[in-house]
Write a structure and sequence with these properties.
By secondary structure, the protein is an all-beta fold. A hairpin with a 2-residue loop joins β1 and β2. It is globular. A 4-stranded antiparallel beta sheet has the order 1-2-3-4, with no helix packed on it.
């Protein structure tokens, strides 16, 4: 709720702890809305209370058509 993520995009793809700018945070990977996109959220523990200031990073990483992939 704090990051205003639509309900249909709240499927958790992955999560883990980290320190960001000196703060304890959790990184969450969610669907980005379009095929191949992933939304990366980094949130503080107060995110559970719905505080909007708890969202440290909210980025959509595009992976659709035209995205470059590394080849060995």
């Amino acid at each position: 709720d704090a990051a205003s993520i639509p309900a249909r995009q709240r499927t958790l793809l992955g999560a883990g702890p980290l320190r960001l700018r000196g703060d304890h945070a959790t990184v969450l990977l969610l669907p980005g809305g379009r095929l191949g996109d992933v939304r990366l959220l980094a949130v503080t523990p107060s995110c559970a209370q719905g505080e909007s200031s708890s969202v440290l990073v909210d980025r959509v990483l595009t992976g659709g058509a035209g995205a470059r992939t590394a080849t060995p």
